[in-house]
Amino acid sequence: YYITNNLSMSMVTRYTNCCVLRDDAILHDDLWVADGHIINPKNYFWNSRKIPDRTFDCQGKIIVPGFIEVQINGGFGVDFSSDVDTLEAGLARFRKEITKYGITGFCPTLITSPSEMYKKALPLLKKQRGNVVQGAAVLGAHVEGPFINALKNGAHPKQYIQSKCLPCYEDVVDFFGPINNVTIMTIAPELPDALQMIECLVKHNVICSIGHSTANIDEAEGGVNAGGTFITHLFNAMQPFHHRDPGIVGILSSSKLNRKCFYGIIADGLHTHPAALRIAHRTNAQSAVLVTDAMAAMGLGDGAHCIGSQSVSVTGKKAVISGTETLAGSVVTMNSCVENFMRNSGCTLVEAVNCATKHPAQLLKCADLYGTLDFGTVADFVIIDTDVNVLATFIGGDCVYKSDNFVGFLD
Question: Which of 53, 85, 171, 293 is an active site residue?
Answer without folding.
Answer: 293
